[in-house]
Amino acid sequence: MKKIDISTILASAIHESKNQVGTLLYQLQSLKDAISNNDANHKKIVLIEESLKKLNDEWVEYLYLYRLASDGYDLHVDTFLLDEFLDDQVFALLPSAKAKNLELDYTCDPSLTGIFDERLMTAVVSTAVYNALRFAKTKIRISAIKHRDFLVISIEDDGQGFNLSDDQPEAFLEGNTGLGLYFAELSATAHVIDEVKGFIKKESSLSLGGANLSVYLPQPTTDQTLSFK
Amino acid sequence: MAQQDFSKKKALLIEDMAEARIMQRKMLSDFGFTSIEIAMKAETAVELLRSHSFDVILSDYNLGNGKDGQQLLEEIRHSKLIPHTATYLMVTAETSIEMVMGAIEYQPDGYITKPFSQAVLQRRLSKLLETKERLLEVNLALDANNFNEAILAAKRVIKKYPSLLGKCERIIGESFLEIKEYKKALSLFNKTLKNRKMPWALFGKAKTYFFMGELEKAEQNFRQLMLDNRFFVSAYDWLAKIQVKNNNLEEAQATLIEAIGKSPKNILRQMELGKISLLLNDYIAAEMAYRRAVFLAKYSCYNTAEVYIKHLESLARISDSGPLLPRQKDNFESTLKKIHESFFDDPDNKAKTYSYEIDVYLADNDKSTAKQIFEAWLSEVKSGSATPPSKQQSSIFTKSFGS
Q: Which UniProt key words apply to this protein (chain B) (predicted)?
């Protein structure tokens, strides 16, 4: 019998399941539209909706993870205004935070731009925020700054924080698998400029006191972007 | 982000699945669209785009058996059925997004991944329309083919909105190519590539070298693109063009066959393969390519007489070395019928069609039918509705008829 590539099969199985989640979300949407906001079941439907969305986002993460790990992902970078990018992320994730009575916001210089793969970083930020939702007490903050030749996107919370002395700090993220951190790391290192690779850092949050996951993405060295005539 | 007023915008929704179509239509009307046209397949969409103008086109990537959303986009952009001022939003699944991102040459203004909520769609559309507003002067200049003005306008936009740098640089580079300012184009693409490995910049660079006649450098860059982007099949078409220029028709044919293996539904590619195969006297390959082109033409902006007539020509050339097989004859008849239906008013088309028919009947040794067709042709020549046969044709045919 021909030997089969189980990871490819799992990836396509995840894909199938993800599509089914999509169909369920559409059906749920019409159910939600059919009942009034005051209906006692409305809240339950919103909860189911948020869980399905999270499931969908997780499967998207696994699919990217599979492609990154098997070298099957073509990076598509472009220039983005971080104010817009982070606003998008907060917009997409706010309902999940609200469902848990947590605050979620972002800060960055309104004129800050960066070069990165938008889909990949969207998946990284949502993975990190979903994770923070499990540990935060009241608040999660996404921020972006330019540090030397890196764009740094950070996700901080006011929970317990990484236990940095722990032998396996990954255990904090994603149960015991460390999949979320691994995904963030692969995504960061996929960004390369002049042989400088991206990376991640796990730190304590100075402003919120909890965990801080920072993703460092290399940027062009000097600002030549406006220099052409 | 400014709140968009969608009520005066005209939308076209292209989606083959009923459930999704109903849902998306509801979403669009819920956030203000009052004019929404619906197409269930690419063919209908092309018809609607011919007869109406739209501000927003929301198209699914997967459109069932016909053309997919990306092919539709390529065709309508290539044949300028939509202006640069219109917004094209592609609805994708995780698997199809790479095809869309990998297309490089013709990309939608934005994409949205299924499943999405009404709020997400509204927000995405608002942003895209806002970007279109910011680029309005640039796009108006592009629509007017005023590339100098487009360059100036794009430079103004970069100053005002730095986040649009990538889009504007691309427009400037491609406009330089349009006005044949190859040196300026090259320096812009190189500058972009120095900072960011943007596929469009590498594509621009490769095209620039092609237009400058530096075929070796062009080939090197197209090959790099093919390595970097598995889904960018257009690079093969350009590579084939270089091979044709270098008189390597066999290589060009092999390149196109490889491209068609990756993406078989592109009619222009099939026609190019047919053309090169005819030049190589490889009539079997030519017939196959044109037969596929005939099939694709039905759903296409490129539904021209040439597709059909070239198919007959390739079959006629096959018949030069013996009678057609029954299956080939059926193909000939079916394409002939389509020419009669749609393209038989043109005197040249008539002449070519008659001559290929005569070839095929002569190959069958059916001299009397061949002769009848020749006489029909001549009588149409008399009435002025067909181009006369060449002297060479007349002498070959009359000799073949024997009597």
A: Phosphoprotein
The Cα-based distances of B306 to A52, B110, B272, B275, B302 in angstroms read 52, 35, 12, 11, 9
Distance from CA of B54 to the nearest CA of A (A): 27
Same domain, A50 and A122: no
Are the CB atoms for B222 and B242 separated by under 8 Å?
Answer: yes
Give yes or no: residues A131 and A176 share one domain: yes
Place of tokens 């330019």: A146
Q: pTM (2 decimals)?
A: 0.82
pLDDT at A82: 95
> How far does chain B reach from its first CA to its final CA, in angstroms?
83
Is B3 a residue whose pLDDT tops 80?
Answer: no
Cis peptide before B115 (omega within 30 of 0): yes
**Residue A25 lies in domain:** 6-69
Task: Convert the pLDDT of each residue in B67-125 to its tens digit.
Answer: 889 889 988 998 889 999 999 999 987 667 777 777 888 889 998 988 888 888 999 99
Is the CB of residue B151 less than 8 Å from the CB of residue B175?
yes
Give B 26-45 residues with CB within 8 A of chain A: 26
Give the CATH number for residue A211: 3.30.565.10
- Looking at residue A165, its pLDDT comes to 54
Hey, where are the domains in chain B?
Answer: 10-133, 135-212
Q: Do A190 and A127 meet the contact criterion of CB atoms below 8 Å apart?
A: no
Domain membership of residue A224 (yes or no) is no
Select from B27, B61, B195, B227 the residue whose CB has the most chain A CBs within 10 Å, as the one to mutate to test that interface. Answer: B195
Q: What CATH architecture does domain B135-212 belong to?
A: Alpha Horseshoe (1.25)
Q: For chain A, how are helix, strand and coil distributed in percent, rounded to 5?
A: 50, 20, 30
Choose among B19, B94, B117: nearest Cβ to A63: B94
Q: What is the pLDDT of residue A176?
A: 44
Radius of gyration, alpha carbons of chain A: 19
Q: Among residues A76, A12, A22, A8, which one has the least CA distance to residue B99?
A: A76
Smallest CA–CA separation between A189 and chain B, in Å? 15
Q: Kindly give the pairing relationship between strand A196-197 and strand A192-193.
A: antiparallel
Q: Does B187 touch chain A (CB under 8 A)?
A: yes
- pLDDT of residue B367 exceeding 70, the answer is yes
Give the count of Cβ contacts less than 8 A between chain A and B.
84
Q: Which residues of chain A have pLDDT under 50?
A: 169-174, 176-177, 224-229
How many domains, in total, are found in chain A? 2
Please work out, in degrees rounded to the nearest 5, the angle formed at the alpha carbon of residue B101 by the alpha carbons of B96 and B107.
110
Give domain B10-133's CATH number out of 2.40.50.100, 3.30.950.10, 3.40.50.2300, 3.40.190.10: 3.40.50.2300
pLDDT at position A29 is 83
3-state secondary structure of B113: strand
| Mean model confidence pLDDT for chain B | 92
**Structure tokens belonging to residue B172:** 């400037």
Q: A41 and A13, same structural domain?
A: yes
* DSSP string for A42-66: HHHHHHHHHHHHHHHHHHHHHHHHH
